[in-house]
Design a protein that fits this description.
about 160 residues; alpha+beta; 7 strands; globular; 2-C-methyl-D-erythritol 2,4-cyclodiphosphate synthase; metal-binding
Length: about 160
Amino acid sequence: MRIGQGVDAHRLVPDRDLILGGVHIDFTEGLAAHSDGDVLLHAISDALLGAAGAGDIGQHFPDTDDAYAGIDSRILLRQVASHLREGGWRVVNVDATVIAQRPKLQPYLELMTANIAGDLGVGIGQVNLKATTMEWMGFTGRGEGIAATAVAMIGDA
């Protein structure tokens, strides 16, 4: 068994869709990024790659490569899962937290969980998601951006 952790954050900007966990969130702003900006899937991808000792998503999907401009982060997560399987690993579980003062994310967590479990090829019970605020402190508390943290455990396939 091996464990990895991941963190990602992006600032909120107008004229972008907000996508978290592969779900379009009804909100007035989205996350600035080379890809779709899905900080939750980026943090999970980094946690999985870290557990496998395989670097991070920036190494695998660099923001200097136009092939990844605007890409759906679910595609990247599925590629990470495939990379793990090819390396002889299986996902044991993922636990992640989205940090955002707004919008409220509780209504979307079930669909996000289903997306992530499906993309990783694991059961719903192997993915745990949470959402929290920073009680108006820091960049997430001021509504300037959204962050996510994740831990993942992998084991031999």
